[in-house]
Structures are given as C-alpha cells and as structure tokens.
C-alpha cells in the first residue's frame, strides 16, 4: 500500500486565507480530487484521519477550514471527545460562526478551493468529487449546483437544513446539478425532518438529477464522527461503503 502524505496548506480566497489539510497518496502521481467539507466542529484530527482514509483509497483530498474568517483551526477549542449535551457551551460558541457562513460567501470560497485543486500537481485533471458532513452536506450540495462543470459527484451525510422553506435553501440549486448525488440521512435528526427529506427527494427527482437518498435507521446527527457522542459504527461503515462506491463510479 502506498503511504499517505498529509500536509497543512493555505488557500488564498477573496476574503483572506483558508487553512486546510491536504492528503494524497505518496506515489508522486496526480489522483482524482475530493473536496471534503467539515462538520460544525471543524478541522481536527477526526477529519484529517477521514481524509487519510480516502487518500489510502487513491484520492487527493482537501479539507478546508471553512470558518477561517474567525481564525485558524481550531477556531473553537474542543475536548478529545465531543458531547454537546454534556458541554452545551461548545455549540453555543459554534452556532453563530456557522450561521455567519451564508451561501454567498461559502460559494465564493468554494470557487477558491476548486481553483486551488485544479492548480495542484497532486490532483488529476478534470472534475472533482465533494463530500460533506453535517453543515458540510449543505455546502456539498450548494457546490454541486453552483459549479456543475467542476463537480462530477457529491455526497452528504447527516446533513441538516437541506430543504427548508428559506429562499436560499440548498435544494433550490437542484436544477443546475449535473453530478451524481448521494445523501445518507440520519433518522434521529431534528435538523432534517421527514418533510425536508421528502422536499429534497422531490426537487432532485423533478430536476432529473442522478441521486440516491437513504435513511440510516437508528443513526443520530453526526453518526460518522468517531470523536463525538453521536457516533454509530454501523452507520459509519455504511457511509464509507456508499462514498467509496460513488467515487469508484465517478472516477
């Protein structure tokens, strides 16, 4: 197995510099690129280990700190094991930072991330894939709809607020999407109730988007994140199978 190389990188954006983590096979060759959008807890060892696992499977993976306007990661200091119910102040600090990242600046940033990957010698030419977790699932869908010519596949896991009644709800970009999409919903997730799941499904179907939306029974919001109280091993392994299958179909 080729060793994985992981490095910290800085990405210039229209609003500053985003710190990020880059993982890729250490064979000196370019590989298909994956943009990995963080959950609300941010760029940390859990996410770099996920990037490394994708790199082991043959991909070049970029994980930007999408909260870079508020500082370099960690923007909010976190315990090794995150249990928001036991430590409610964690989310109290994160929530306003998350809410400040509205679609317009987030998609300006996405352009910077995509351009950086296009210029990276570690990334193969051509469209990329995107995967996102929690709030990152929203960013993945928005990126696929905002830059359809540059995104060949996008996945989102335990995403929240994917199909609200707000005028900037992510599901409204469905008509622009050309990528294949996959969503793994947590069924114990108040941030994506059944009516939003149905609204998302209807929008993707009406737009003719190639997509799969699956509900992970018994899974809570955050089920892929092993450093949190929401982690579900069975759901996590199912997520890896679905994600790697999507990437194999794409590349």
Report the C-alpha radius of gyration, rounded: 17 Å
Low-confidence stretches: none
By DSSP (H or I, 4+ residues per run), the number of helices equals 6
Largest sheet composition: 8 strands, mixed
Proportion of residues in β-strands: 15-25%
Instruction: Write down the overall mean pLDDT.
Output: 97
Q: Which secondary-structure class do the elements indicate?
A: alpha/beta
How helical, in percent, are the residues? Answer: 25-40%
Query: How would you write the strand order of the largest sheet?
Result: 1-2-4-3-5-6-7-8
Shape: globular
N-to-C order of helices and strands = EEEHEHHEHEEHEH
Ends distance:
20 Å
Per DSSP E runs of 2 or more residues, the count of β-strands stands at 8
Give a short overview:
With 251 residues, the protein is of the alpha/beta class. Helices cover 34% and strands 25% of the residues.
Structure write-up:
The structure is a single chain. With 251 residues, the chain is an alpha/beta fold. The chain is built from six helices and eight strands. The protein has helices at 45-56, 88-100, 103-119, 135-146, 194-206, 233-250; strands at residues 4-13, 16-25, 33-37, 60-64, 128-133, 151-157, 180-188, 211-220. Strands 1-2-4-3-5-6-7-8 form an eight-stranded mixed β-sheet, with helices on both faces. Helix 3 packs across helix 4. The model has no long low-confidence stretch (mean pLDDT 97).
Strand and helix map with partners:
Layout: E1 4-13, E2 16-25, E3 33-37, H1 45-56, E4 60-64, H2 88-100, H3 103-119, E5 128-133, H4 135-146, E6 151-157, E7 180-188, H5 194-206, E8 211-220, H6 233-250
Parallel strand pairs: 3-4, 3-5, 5-6, 6-7, 7-8
Antiparallel strand pairs: 1-2, 2-4
Helix pairs in contact: 3-4
